[in-house]
Write the structure tokens for this entry.
Amino acid sequence: MSKQSNDSGLLPVAGLSGLELLRGFITAGKGPPIGVTLGFALLEVEPGRAVFAGTPGTNSYNPLGVVHGGWAATLLDSACGCAVHSQLSATQTYTTLELKVAFHKSLTSDTGLLRATGTVLSLGRRVGFAEAKLTDATGRLYASATSTLLVMEQG
């Protein structure tokens, strides 16, 4: 995360805790440009939990005629990362060290709205562990992930 605002229209991050920043994105109706590109947004955040939602489109299809796994992985990575970010101070940042994704059911443009819910499993001074699940409106599981994240002091 950058310490200053940038040309993408994001909020300035200096002096904001992770939770304040993420809540600011929701309130302002803003988010990272990747959300616009892939059609997803941050909907909810509380300490240790973040929820993203999006509807996959045919623009995300792979050569097999289903949504590329990277689309689901990106939502799951975002949910895990922001769940951890929601518990960081204004002087901390993070990066994903490892993301393990399991695909339970294929996605198509007919799948509809999906929610990626990330929760922190544990958070230490240097490392955080989180998990996320990608589900539809009925609660059907499409993908899940676990993530290891490095927590750092901003320089």
